[in-house]
Amino acid sequence: MNLRAISAAIENELISLFEELRSGMAAREDSRAFGAMIERRILDNWHAICERCGFAPVDLPGRRTIFDFGFTVENRIVGIDVKTKDLDTTKYSDGGICAVGNLLKFLANDKGQFIIAEFGHNQSTTTNDARDLEYIRVAPFILLPQNSYRIENLGTGQVRLNYTINQVWDEIEWDRDIKVFYDIFTDLAIKHYQRVGRDAEKRIQAIESFKRGGYAKFTFAG
Predict the structure, then answer these.
(1) Given phi > 0 = left and psi -120 to 50 = alpha, else beta, which region is 157?
(2) Helix ranges (DSSP H) in the chain
(3) What share of the chain is helix, strand, coil (3-state, %, to 5)?
(4) With 0-12 CB in 10 A as exposed, 13-18 as middle and 19+ as buried, what is 25?
(5) Which of 100, 117, 165, 215 is 20 to 30 Å from 3 by CA-CA measure?
(6) Is the dihedral of CA 159, 160, 165, 168 positive or negative?
(7) Reported pTM
(8) Residue 144 carries which DSSP code?
(9) 82 neighbors 61 (Cβ within 8 angstroms)
(10) pLDDT band at 29; cut points 50, 70, 90
(11) Which are the contacts of 72, defined by CB distance < 8 A and separation ≥ 6?
(12) Which residue has the higher pLDDT, 12 or 131?
């Protein structure tokens, strides 16, 4: 499976799809609503996009699936996760992707490929109630530079990105074998869970101390 060619094909289709709306796209009250509008337009054209690319679209994933749109090629599923990035540096964007376990199950158990489609947008230069679409970048998650990945202590571990796809575009390792990604990612996950375990043990000790002290004063050390 040529991930570079697949990513380029999807990127070109999305650029064409949004070309007429690149300047002055209707603004929404928040980034989530703006993202929903982007996804709606893709959904309405998804079957046509897949047909032009020679892919077989799959049914819309359920809520627990890590991707927003999908297709099969060479009898393997490819999931597309759509990310909208507000380029205003004063706006918070956490780069959240999915749970650690769900990612590894999709890649290893389902033999899937996971691709990020990133839409960078800014306040319109012509009107206050619109957005300008600055770029569209599409890249495989497993080929991003090592320093892009991080895991946060949410639930069973939440995968995050430290940088936008656009920021690391020239550092994407297009020829990386997936085993190299697994080496990078599993080491990161192990270190995360070791750290979480140490933190959890400190909290257990704090609760036990609180109980022994007759519930007089409580504090989480560290």
Answers:
(1) left
(2) 3-18, 31-53, 100-104, 178-212
(3) 45, 25, 30
(4) buried
(5) 100
(6) negative
(7) 0.87
(8) S
(9) no
(10) very low
(11) 55, 56, 58, 78
(12) 12
